[in-house]
Amino acid sequence: MSYNDNFIKACRKEQVDTLPVWYMRQAGRYDPDYRKIKEKYSLLEICQQPELAAEVTMMPIKKLGVDAAILYSDIMNPVASLGIDFDIVKDVGPVIHTPVRTAQDVERLRPIDVEKDLSHIIQTIRILDKELEVPLISFAGAPFTIASYLIEGRPSKSYIRTKQLMYSEPAVWFALMDKLGDMVITYLRAHIAAGAKAVQVFDSWVGALSPADFEVYVLPTMKRIFQELSDLKEPKIYFPGVSSGELLPYLRGIQADVIGLDWRVPISIGRERVGDQYAVQGNLDPYILTAPMSVIEKQAKAIIDEGIQKPGYIFNLGHGLFPEASLEKLKELTTFIHTYSRSVLTQQAEKSGV
Ligand code: CP3
Which residues are listed under the site Transition state stabilizer (predicted)? Predict the structure, then answer.
């Protein structure tokens, strides 16, 4: 098989003959073979073994036929190098032993040292760069989303302590945003140097903020991150997470190539809000995957019909896959996206006489 670069072409808004698709959290617990590996090793133990982490990264490529791989890792991994102790607790998520809540806590955070502390991740990327026949996406958590774990100490629904710090001690908040922004920049540059072909910044929880607060407390750091990565030719994706529809107009001008949309915003409205310079990615509600295949295909078709109107569209979910998702349905969905989009794109090309 030759190298499939449809995903990169779509990120650059170039013509493709078939829409590219990948799924957030495509390496994970819906796959029985992954669950078997997880009986022996924790997520962090898998990440410590580059050959195994590369194998887990490749599992959904072979099984689902997706057009991009996403590095098997977690947004928390680089945080270890700042000097933070954490665990990923089953059915909970990231848990921080000593949360970051004061000026002193922020001052204590070290700059990350990729070579010393994160060489296993670089090694995994190098292996994948040799083996993959689709582009490798690597990723980082965005400063707000990482800060929410560091401050709360665990997953939160209200982000009460995060907001308390942000509103009450803005100098401490901005010092933390600066350090986490530096972390993202250093980390992603190292990933691209090792062979990653695109990067995605996950801001899963920033939709918890009002647009006005997003603009003041978060956007300057996000602009700086993408500006400082802008000399790299590899596509950059910003995913502002769930419930981020109202934040989209504020992203105009950010130096990313692709904006990820959640399922609450129709693709055409998402495009209007961010502006035509960006490709867009999304946005099937992951929980629709619990429905019969006919319902899944109907909803996927409606999304494709909007996305395919302009170059620069990548099919994905509006958020990550969940453990109860079915491997069989995902396989069928992937085939449907490829087959259906190929027929529409062929008709489009015939009409325009290309
Ligand atoms: O997408 C992929 O297949 C690549 C792997 C990946 C993981 N985490 C592995 C993982 C990616 C891209 C992430 C990113 C991540 N981690 C995000 C951003 C994406 C999103 O969903 O919004 C966030 C918020 C985290 C933090 C985190 N890690 C949470 C909330 C959880 C879930 C806790 C649970 O058990 O449900 C984790 C654990 C985690 N990270 C799992 C996986 C496959 C599940 C547990 C496991 O298999 O050990």
Answer: 74
